Every structure is written in structure tokens, then in C-alpha cells.
């Protein structure tokens, strides 16, 4: 199986879906009548919080690992991540019987640190800066010969993440819109590509916290622009877009919305209370955006990617 070095095609995404099927769950699509009433739309939630390791990241990490030549894979997998991608790389390495080396910032949520360790990964902690992550990882790669699986700036990862929207479109072929959260943009890019290829009549939107609004700034200006690095409860969305992900987002999204910290907490509480499922703050950002922009989504059939459910239950925001 060849690694992808160019923008994934429709065939690449379908091939990736077939490749990773033994290593992922096909997650359910749920709906809530009461949330539909509040949003004035029919909302369909693709529940990647029920995915292996509790997040969509299992898709991209699996695709990247499985596309490696066996000799490279045997030397191990490595990455830097604050949590869900770390768990995904650790889990697929465990399933494939190869080493995993994970660089995590010191402030990574404890639930994600513990889960990553539980999958047997070798974890190295570093300062909570991008420079520290990259420097620490470079040393590990040099010492071990492991392959770096980037959290989002990798077409193999993007093609894997695209399979979530592919499944959603297969289950619900007549959606008016699909919306996903944006951090580094791997899921958003994959969602945009799958929608473009398999449901071109469906509009695609992104959502992110106001505190880390690089995608909004970049989309509006047409130039990739970093955010100011402010804190956000949506810890999975603190990264900036890459050139690869911004190129896809700029081309295929209809718009990008931002939401406040209070709106994220309210949406998270709403899903817990009304749908009785565990979701983390990052994954409800799209729902918060739909509720904030009723003029855009009123009366429409809207798919929402719920990206994960790895929550530190000792630090709930409500």
C-alpha cells in the first residue's frame, strides 16, 4: 500500500476506508429532537466519541501507519500530541505490535496521558510550546529511526480522517450541510474532501473557538494567519492550520464560524443532558456554531462531526 504524497483523491479516500476498517469502529449517527427544536434544524451527529480511543484520530493514525512499508513500521511510530492523536498512534502501534514514542506537553489532560500510557507507548513530556514539541520529537526520531505521524499535516492522515464524513454521507445522502471543528485542520480537510467528492451539493462549514481563531482569520483574509495563542477549554483545537490543510479549507469551505468559551460550555452541557453521551469541549464547537447562526442553518439537514469524548471527569466545566 503506497503512502500518499499528493492531495487525496476520491479513490484514495475509499481505499483508505477499506484499509482501516479492521482497526476502527463504524460509529453511529444520532439525533436529538429537543436539540433540533433549539437549533431550528435537523441535526445529525456522527459520534466519533464512540470511536476506538474515544476520538476520530484513530482513523488518520491507522491509515498513516498501515500505508508505511513494513520495514519502516517495525522501527516504530512517533508523534507529538496533547492527547487524542497521541492515543491513536499508541493504539495502532499496539495493534500492529510495533513501538510508539509520544511527545506530550506537560499540561496535557491527565485522562489523555493515562490512556496513552495504557496503550503501551513510551511517553516523553516537554514544555507546552510547539518549539519544545518539535525539538523533543526530533531527538527521538534520530535515536530510534521511528516514523513521524503528523497530527494533521499529512495527506495519509487527512485521507483517514476523511472516512468519518464518507460514512456520514453514505448513511445520510441528502444533507444540506456538514460542519466540523477546526484545530490543525486534518479532520476539517478530510471532511471537505469527502463532501466535495461524494456529496458535492452539500455545503461544508468549519467552527473554532474565538480564542484560537486562526482558521477564521486565514479563511477571511486568504492568507494563512496564526492565532494569538490564548487559552481555550477546547484543548484539542489549539493548533494552527498547516499549508496542506489551509489549502483544502480555503478551496472547499463555505464559511468558518467562531464561538465563545461560554457557548462551548453550554453546547457541551446540552449534549450531556439531552443526548446522554460523553463529549469533550472541542467536539461541540460545531454545535455551538449552529446554535449561534440560526439564519444559516434554519430548516436544513445538517451533519455534525462529534470528534471525541475524552474528558477529565474531575475537571468538568459545569
Write up what this structure looks like.
The protein contains 14 helices and ten strands. It folds into two domains: 202 residues, Rossmann fold (3-Layer(aba) Sandwich), CATH 3.40.50; 91 residues, Rossmann fold (3-Layer(aba) Sandwich). Strand 3, helix 5 and strand 4 form a beta-alpha-beta unit. The strands form two sheets. Strands 1-2-10-7-8-9 form a six-stranded mixed beta sheet, with helices on both faces. A four-stranded parallel beta sheet has the order 5-4-3-6, with helices on both faces. 46% of the residues lie in helices and 15% in strands. The chain is globular. It has 318 residues and is of the alpha/beta class.
The CATH topology of the largest domain is given as Rossmann fold
Mean pLDDT: 96
Relative helix content:
40-55%
Instruction: Give the second-level CATH assignment, the architecture of the largest domain.
Output: 3-Layer(aba) Sandwich
| Rg from Cα | 18 Å
Strand order of the largest sheet: 1-2-10-7-8-9
EC number: 5.1.1.18
Enzyme class: isomerase
Keywords: Isomerase, Lyase, Pyridoxal phosphate
Pfam families: PALP
Amino acid at each position: 500500500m503506497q503512502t500518499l504524497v499528493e492531495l487525496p483523491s476520491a479513490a484514495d479516500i475509499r481505499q483508505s476506508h477499506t484499509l482501516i476498517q479492521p482497526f476502527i469502529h463504524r460509529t453511529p449517527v444520532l439525533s436529538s429532537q429537543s436539540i433540533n427544536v433549539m437549533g431550528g434544524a435537523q441535526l445529525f451527529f456522527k459520534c466519533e466519541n464512540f470511536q476506538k480511543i474515544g476520538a476520530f484520530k484513530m482513523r488518520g493514525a491507522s491509515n498513516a501507519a498501515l500505508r508505511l512499508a513494513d520495514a519502516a513500521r517495525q522501527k516504530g511510530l512517533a508523534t507529538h500530541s496533547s492527547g487524542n492523536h497521541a492515543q491513536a498512534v499508541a493504539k495502532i502501534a499496539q495493534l500492529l505490535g510495533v513501538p510508539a514514542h509520544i511527545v506530550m506537553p506537560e499540561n496535557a489532560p491527565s485522562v489523555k496521558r493515562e490512556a496513552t500510557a495504557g496503550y503501551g507507548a513510551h511517553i516523553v513530556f516537554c514544555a507546552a510550546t510547539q518549539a519544545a514539541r518539535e525539538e523533543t520529537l526530533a531527538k527521538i526520531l534520530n535515536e530510534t529511526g521511528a516514523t513521524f505521524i503528523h497530527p494533521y499535516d499529512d495527506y495519509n492522515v487527512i485521507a483517514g480522517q476523511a472516512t468519518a464524513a464518507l460514512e456520514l454521507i453514505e448513511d445520510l445522502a441528502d444533507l444540506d450541510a456538514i460542519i466540523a471543528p477546526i484545530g490543525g485542520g486534518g479532520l476539517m480537510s478530510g471532511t471537505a474532501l469527502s463532501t466535495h467528492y461524494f456529496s458535492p451539493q452539500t455545503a461544508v462549514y468549519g467552527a473554532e473557538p474565538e480564542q484560537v481563531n486562526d482558521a477564521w482569520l486565514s479563511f477571511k483574509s486568504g492568507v494563512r494567519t496564526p492565532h494569538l495563542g490564548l487559552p481555550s477549554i477546547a484543548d484539542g483545537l489549539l493548533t494552527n492550520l498547516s499549508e496542506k490543510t489551509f489549502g483544502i479549507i480555503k478551496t472547499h469551505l463555505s464559511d468558518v464560524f467562531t464561538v465563545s468559551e461560554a457557548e462551548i460550555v453550554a453546547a457541551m452541557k446540552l449534549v450531556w443532558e439531552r443526548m446522554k453521551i460523553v463529549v469533550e469541549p472541542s467536539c461541540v464547537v460545531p454545535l455551538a456554531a449552529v446554535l449561534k447562526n440560526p439564519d444559516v442553518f434554519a430548516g436544513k439537514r445538517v451533519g455534525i462531526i462529534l470528534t471525541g469524548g475524552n474528558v477529565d471527569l474531575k475537571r468538568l466545566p459545569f
